[in-house]
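> tool_call: predict_assembly(chains=two)
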Amino acid sequence: MTVTVLLFASYADALGKSAIELDVAPGSTVRDILGTLCAMPGGDRLPPRPLVAVNQEYASASTTLQGGEEVAVIPPVAGG
Amino acid sequence: MRVALVDSPIDVAALISEVSDDSCGAATVFLGCVRNVNEGRAVTGIEYSAYRSMAEREMSAIAHEAAERFGVTRLIVEHRLGTLGLGDVSVAIVSAHPHRAPALDAMRFAIEELKRRVPIWKLELYVDGTREWVGAVSIPEGVR
């Protein structure tokens, strides 16, 4: 199954891209996605437990994915 | 209530007249502006970016929470994106109510929650030509 990973701000700079289509095994969790990202070039610049949103809602590392989700890795927010 | 991400200057006077009517004995305005210094470094501007769909969704959730908590439905939250210069208004929270306490409380709640959980980022531009993402180390506590 496929999920779309979105990266922003310093995290997009770290991996050199703002969107990645990932092929993942059925039953994968947010934690698995983060593990895959960390193993990519520049992924070592991500923090160990970044904030994540699944389909525009904050989610935990244990959230299970069904495929087709938008998984956003959210750097520390700084609006205002 | 209304929330928006905008790409052009925020018209504060227009927001005040939009939010208020003759039943309102109080209107409040909070403006966030681009400051000329941050942590000792001279700043020339800030580039704001966002996860737009989620940011609008969170801003809308905050407005609904403010209505529930304080009974304030006359509330507008606008955040500007793009490159802003010194003194430019980056965010405006405008509220109105028959009485001042709920108007002030809702406004304060909205800006504090916005800063805590709305996915918007600042790239600060410095006098020496360098640039840096703001807050690249800390993570907000207790986000949902």
